[in-house]
């Protein structure tokens, strides 16, 4: 089957199982998930949906999320939208059908993890997640350019590669401003317009608090704050400005007032915060590297479960903007290594549990590439103690990378998103690519080995191991595919 036909077939299989086109309010996708806003949650056929070969799992959060995996989701989403357009062009539902759906609308929808803090973190993630593909692409090009420069090869091409890799980062504040206004209900282009002030070269002529502003000062944090301010100024204008004058006065006041506050306050304050983040991360790893790595690597899986990892996205982006790479991501990636080692140990210990072993075999390749949720939710977390031993493996790998950072060999990533083996093309450090790759690989190996040993010898009680191997034989149907948490 041709790839386009395969993707359309996947979309066609999914659409009726989520209640059809008229049950969908919105559609979007991130790195791995098709995110649907549903009118009536009760119309979704969860088990049939999870049984589809292309579906890796489903997540019910603020949107209904169907996990298709990186690459696949970007190809299925347009086909899904095309099928929706075709279906909605058909005759509408009868009055009786509409009345029935209206009576049940939102009746069964649940608010899971809907605390104000977590909802705020999700909105922050929604601002930065759409930027990840560009960060990855530009990061890999930057790494390739650095390699060619170091080797002295293709010197006529390297300036062009440098321009391609750096262009997005030079204007990332504008994209953050655009997405911030969009996420918080303002006019996206006005958010981008205000944020663009931060990267304008002419700000170097402005003095604030006795200091001359620098283009880019405040970075993505300043852009986020400026665009958020623009949203509130725009709302105020929409409320007070007469409709006849709205098209002239509202955008003018929004850009003017928000721009002045950005220039004479936000850029300076956000610049201080951004500088503090950079200095803080470097100080932490320079002085407490092994301990910091142990804590960060060991606690990252629980942070992902709680949704608190989303708070790190602006920090990663700030570090990349300031230093060219984030030193935190390679350490946090060690959590996935501990999970992989744990899964291999469970596979060996559960010799008679065909269902669990099949789950591990199908999820392990994704785990090696940094997609650890199927292993977490299908293997370690349901078993209990193996989840803890997986965290121990992550802590050991994090301590390994952190130790070398304390010794002066920093390991960073030029983009956020990938981890595991998928992070190798994005690695960058302060002592050459060979050293950086060797340290990161050593951390992964440490995480694998410690996660495996901790799980193999301490991951089970005698009774739990007996119960585990009393499960169905390999000839019986495999367990349902695991669900993912609400992030990507």
UniProtKB/TrEMBL annotation:
Bilayer-crossing residues are 127-148, 160-178, 190-208, 214-233, 245-270, 290-313, 325-348, 387-407, 437-458
Q: Where is the PTS EIIC type-1 domain?
A: 122-474
The record's listing under Gene3D superfamilies reads: Glucose permease domain IIB (3.30.1360.60)
Q: What keywords does the record list, in alphabetical order?
A: Cell membrane, Kinase, Membrane, Phosphotransferase system, Sugar transport, Transferase, Transmembrane, Transmembrane helix, Transport
Q: Where is the composition biased (Pro residues)?
A: 474-488
Task: From the UniProt entry, list the residue stretches annotated as the region Disordered.
Answer: 469-488
The answer to whether keyword Membrane applies is yes
Write down a Pfam family by its short name: PTS_EIIC
The segment(s) forming the PTS EIIB type-1 domain are 8-90
Q: Principal place where this protein is found?
A: membrane
The membrane topology noted for this protein in its Swiss-Prot or TrEMBL record is: Multi-pass membrane protein
Q: Which residues form the active site?
A: 30 (phosphocysteine intermediate)
| Compartment(s) | Cell membrane
InterPro entries given in the database record: Glu_permease_IIB, PTrfase_EIIB_Cys, PTS_EIIC, PTS_EIIC_1, PTS_IIB_1, PTS_Sugar-Specific_Components
Protein name (record): Permease
Source organism per entry reads: Streptomyces violascens
Q: Which gene encodes it?
A: scrA
């Amino acid at each position: 089957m041709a790839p386009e036909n395969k993707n359309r077939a996947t979309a066609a299989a999914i659409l009726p199982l989520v209640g059809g086109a008229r049950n969908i309010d919105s559609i979007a996708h991130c790195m791995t998930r098709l995110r649907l806003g549903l009118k009536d949650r009760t119309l979704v056929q969860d088990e049939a949906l999870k049984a589809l070969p292309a579906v890796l799992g489903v997540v019910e959060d603020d949107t209904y999320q169907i996990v298709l995996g990186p690459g696949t989701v970007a190809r299925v989403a347009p086909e899904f939208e095309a099928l929706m357009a075709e279906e909605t062009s058909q005759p509408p539902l009868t009055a009786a059908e509409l009345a029935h759906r209206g009576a049940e609308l939102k009746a069964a929808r649940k608010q899971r993890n809907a605390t104000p803090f977590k909802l705020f973190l999700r909105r922050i993630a929604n601002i930065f997640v759409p930027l990840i593909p560009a960060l990855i692409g530009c990061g890999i090009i930057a790494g390739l350019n650095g390699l060619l420069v170091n080797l002295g090869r293709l010197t006529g091409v390297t300036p062009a590669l440098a321009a391609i890799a750096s262009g997005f980062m030079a204007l990332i504040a504008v994209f953050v401003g655009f997405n911030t206004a969009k996420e918080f209900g303002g006019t996206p282009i006005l958010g981008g317009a205000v944020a663009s002030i931060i990267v304008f070269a002419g700000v170097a002529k402005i003095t604030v608090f006795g200091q001359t502003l620098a283009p880019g000062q405040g970075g993505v944090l300043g852009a986020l704050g400026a665009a958020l301010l623009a949203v509130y100024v725009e709302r105020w204008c929409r409320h007070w400005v007469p409709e006849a004058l709205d098209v002239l006065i509202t955008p003018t006041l929004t850009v003017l007032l928000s721009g002045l506050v950005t220039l004479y306050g936000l850029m300076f304050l956000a610049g201080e915060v951004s500088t503090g983040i950079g200095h803080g991360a470097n100080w932490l790893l320079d002085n407490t590297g092994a301990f910091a790595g142990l804590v960060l690597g060991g606690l990252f899986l629980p942070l992902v479960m709680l949704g608190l990892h989303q708070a790190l996205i602006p920090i990663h982006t700030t570090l990349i903007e300031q230093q060219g790479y984030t030193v935190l991501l390679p350490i946090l990636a060690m959590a996935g290594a501990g999970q992989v080692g744990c899964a291999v140990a469970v596979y060996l210990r559960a010799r008679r549990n065909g269902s669990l072993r099949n789950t591990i075999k199908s999820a392990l390749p994704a785990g090696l590439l940094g997609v650890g949720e199927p292993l977490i939710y299908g293997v370690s977390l349901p078993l209990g103690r193996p989840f803890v031993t997986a965290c121990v493996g992550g802590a050991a790998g994090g301590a390994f990378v952190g130790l070398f950072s304390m010794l002066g060999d920093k390991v960073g990533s030029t983009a956020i998103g990938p981890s595991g083996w998928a992070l190798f093309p994005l690695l960058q450090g302060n002592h050459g690519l060979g050293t950086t790759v060797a340290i990161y690989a050593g951390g992964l190996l440490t995480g694998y080995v410690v996660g495996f040993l901790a799980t193999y010898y301490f991951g089970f009680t005698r009774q739990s191991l007996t119960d585990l191997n009393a499960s169905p034989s390999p000839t019986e149907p495999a367990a349902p595919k695991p669900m993912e948490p609400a992030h990507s």
